[in-house]
Write a structure and sequence with these properties.
The complex is a heterodimer of chains A (365) and B (103).
Chain A: E1 7-14, E2 17-23, E3 30-31, E4 40-47, E5 54-61, E6 65-71, E7 98-104, E8 113-118, E9 121-125, E10 133-134, H1 136-139, E11 155-161, E12 168-173, E13 176-180, E14 188-189, E15 210-215, E16 223-227, E17 231-234, E18 242-243, E19 257-258, E20 266-268, E21 286-289, E22 297-299, E23 316-318, E24 326-329, E25 335-338, E26 346-349, E27 355-363
Antiparallel strand pairs in A: 1-2, 1-27, 2-3, 4-5, 5-6, 7-8, 8-9, 9-10, 11-12, 12-13, 13-14, 15-16, 16-17, 17-18, 19-20, 20-21, 21-22, 23-24, 24-25, 25-26
Chain B: E1 10-15, E2 29-34, H1 40-48, H2 52-58, E3 69-73, E4 76-77, E5 93-98
Classes of the chains: A mainly beta (365), B alpha+beta (103).
């Protein structure tokens, strides 16, 4: 790591609880006991802005419903606002089903945290994630009735605020990419060039099943997308998308990561689809581009041979270190960490429940 | 049995499942005073007074009973009766229990 004696916190949300792993070198990890046992944790978030660390867990009990809890002491104690963080109003006629995404905004918007949820909705907090307000622009969008549900449910699973202006990108399954140029007041579909092969018209204005988006760290107009078949990039904020799948062993997958500091670097974890949805031939590998998707390099050092579990969309992340750490977990409950930008991996944990979400950050030791 | 203050007419015992007891100060049951013409919805309203997190665990924002939460009035599943409009007269025992969902 670039900084002396810092701790990396890795939050691992699974189908049956939350685990926290810590490391001072990103090679040797200490794993906590499980938290929120028997609750799904489809989303985790770590907000390190302003020199403090707030850890979020999007919890979902099949019996008692969803909620967001947060911790300001690295997971020792947790708080759930008494009135709930995310609640539809009675006139909305809807109930929160699951929190898919907890996304702190940019450094220059302290206190702002975004959430993407099921049913398809985006929520904004201006009080550090204590309470969230429904984004009416997207909720009242005329396309709403035509958005569909992916296998995991109908959700806004990705919310990406631009650090430089009022641009927001949202990705939903199914519906595709929507962009707001006015901080969320209005939204337009931005899917030109992204295929929806599963629809009668494979090039609709919206309806695509975009699995994950990632924004370039340096050029906010450049984004990367892992689609339900298809890997794409845009350099014009999503006005048009171009395929960058050449060189990958498969164009299906759920994961898309971008480097926290360097332009043009991204990672995917391909799965063979639609018939199998496993790493191609059981060969689990992380594929990296350093040139915006023109070429890809596979890395499997430290990963098992013969891996037949998928890696879900939020079960992968990067940390914010100068030499980025790359992390992911499988539906088989294995979690891997790379301290060298995805060239080599070490196992952090194994035999956990299905890994649904991971997030990592450098935190005060 | 602890009885919460309320208007009239008799007591109802509400049995609380283990996972929800943290929201009722660890108790296994809560006694509520209910009106003669009360129903399950009104009972839950009373139970949730001052306990918004408990309310959120039992009912959605829409007011609907969560899919995998079951409520029995004297042993009868309210979903087989009148749902949240099922009468809760004084003297009955109401059981809140999670269903067998979950893998």
């Amino acid at each position: 790591m670039s900084a002396a004696r810092k701790t990396v916190l890795l939050a691992i949300g699974t189908k049956k609880g939350l685990w926290l792993a810590t490391s001072t070198d990103r090679e040797t990890w200490t794993l906590s006991d499980p938290l929120f046992l028997m609750e799904e944790i489809p989303s985790v978030g770590i907000d390190t802005r302003g020199g403090t660390t707030r850890l979020f867990a999007g919890r979902m009990s099949w019996h008692f419903g969803p909620c967001i809890a947060h911790s300001d002491d690295l997971g020792t104690t947790w708080t759930e606002p008494q009135e709930g963080s995310i609640r539809f109003a009675p006139e909305d006629g809807a109930a929160l089903e699951r929190v898919w995404q907890i996304q702190p905004d940019a450094e220059n918007r302290p206190g702002v945290v975004w959430a993407g949820c099921q049913p398809i909705s985006v929520w904004k907090s201006t009080d550090h994630g204590e309470t969230f307000e429904l984004n009416r622009g997207l909720w009242d969008h005329p396309h709403r009735s035509e958005w569909g549900a992916g296998f995991g449910g109908a959700a806004a699973h990705t919310v990406l605020p631009s650090p430089t202006d009022e641009t927001l990108h949202v990705a939903m399954s199914t519906g595709g990419v929507y962009r707001s140029d006015d901080g969320g007041a209005s939204w337009r579909p931005r899917n030109k060039g992204i295929s929806a092969y599963f629809m009668p018209d494979p090039d609709p204005e919206f309806g695509q099943c975009v699995h994950k988006l990632a924004r370039d760290a340096v050029d906010p107009d450049r984004l990367f997308a892992q689609n339900h078949h298809g890997v794409y990039a845009t350099t014009d904020r999503g006005d048009s998308w171009q395929s960058i799948a050449d060189g990958l062993p498969a164009d299906f997958g759920f994961v898309m990561l971008s480097h926290p500091h360097r332009s043009g670097t991204a990672w995917v974890i391909p799965l063979k689809a639609d018939g199998e949805r496993i790493p191609p031939d059981g060969h689990l590998a992380v594929h990296r581009t350093d040139d915006g998707g023109a070429t890809w390099q596979a890395s499997d050092a430290g990963l098992p041979r013969g891996e037949y579990n998928a890696v879900l969309r939020d079960a992968a992340c990067v940390d914010d270190d100068a030499v980025a750490g790359v992390y992911f977990g499988t539906r088989g409950g294995s979690v891997y960490a790379s301290a060298d930008e995805g060239r080599t991996f070490r196992e952090v944990a194994s035999h956990l429940p299905d890994v649904l979400s991971v997030r990592a950050a450098v935190v005060p030791a | 049995m602890e009885t919460l203050p309320g208007a009239a007419a008799g007591d109802v015992t509400v049995l609380i499942p283990t996972l929800l007891r943290p929201y009722v100060e660890g108790r296994t049951e809560v006694g509520l005073t209910v009106p003669e013409d009360g129903d399950v919805a009104a009972l839950l309203d009373r139970l949730g007074e001052g306990r918004p997190l408990l309310e959120q665990r039992i009912r959605e924002e829409t007011g609907a009973l969560r899919r995998y939460v079951n409520i029995y009035v004297d042993g009868e599943d309210v979903r087989r009766l009148d749902g949240l409009a099922t009468p809760v007269p004084p003297g009955v025992t109401v059981m809140i229990i999670q269903s067998v969902a979950g893998g």
